[in-house]
Design goal:
Layout: E1 3-9, H1 14-28, E2 32-37, E3 51-57, H2 65-73, H3 75-80, E4 83-89, H4 104-113, E5 119-124, E6 126-128, H5 134-146, E7 156-158, H6 162-174
Parallel strand pairs: 1-2, 1-3, 3-4, 4-5
Antiparallel strand pairs: 6-7
Bound molecules: flavin mononucleotide.
Length: 177
């Protein structure tokens, strides 16, 4: 059994839902999982955890600045314990951009931080048009139109491949020291 810390940065909840699924999988493998928002990272003692997993979504081309802060400030710990990272974005709905080594946001993040997590993943997210504000809705519809995605403003579109989330849950359970 390992103690796993799952830290997430979400805006509309999809990254949290993915973390909850990862938690279920890792717990079913006998691990003890603590799930916390990245906002809380400064008050968290990382010492008791055997493994650290970070997940964050993309909004207008960027992960949360909290993610970068955490990786910078806790670099030593991340390099000494098994760690994993995943990104959530809609570009990953495209087969040619749905792997850590083909997704532009993951590649950019790894290049910028030079952190080398043991496990990496990228998951396609969800667009819930009715829940977005007018400006965001129009922006996303425009981006979707350009990239040949769905534009119905009354629609909700989930692109997340949950079988891949489950597989990543097993990978983080198996990752060693
Ligand atoms: C306002 C807004 C901006 C977004 N910008 C991007 C983007 O630049 N690139 C991308 O691939 N996905 C983008 N997305 C898609 C999100 O990454 C996707 O909706 C994801 O599921 C959000 O996860 P969260 O609910 O955990 O924040 C955007 C979504 C919204 C609502």
């Amino acid at each position: 059994m390992a103690k796993i810390l799952l830290l997430y940065a979400t805006t509309d909840g999809q990254t949290l839902r993915i973390c909850q699924r990862l938690q279920q999988v890792a717990e079913s493998q006998g691990n003890e999982v603590t799930l916390l928002p990245l906002q809380d990272w400064k008050s968290v003692d990382l010492a008791p955890f055997d493994k650290i997993v970070l997940g964050a979504s993309i909004r207008y081309g960027k992960h949360s600045p909290l993610l970068h802060d955490f990786v910078q400030q806790r670099r030593a710990v991340l390099e000494h314990k098994p760690s994993a990272f995943f990104s959530v974005n809609v570009v990953a709905r495209k087969p040619e951009k749905n792997q850590p080594n083909t997704n532009p946001y993951v590649l950019k993040f790894l290049k910028r931080t030079r952190w080398q997590p043991q496990q990496l993943a990228v998951f396609a997210g969800k667009i819930e048009y009715p829940k977005l504000g007018v400006l965001d809705r129009q922006m996303i519809r425009f981006i979707m139109w350009v990239t040949k995605g769905p534009t119905d403003p009354t629609g909700t579109f989930e692109f997340t491949d949950w079988a891949r989330v489950d597989a990543f849950g097993k990978e983080i359970s198996d990752m060693g020291g």
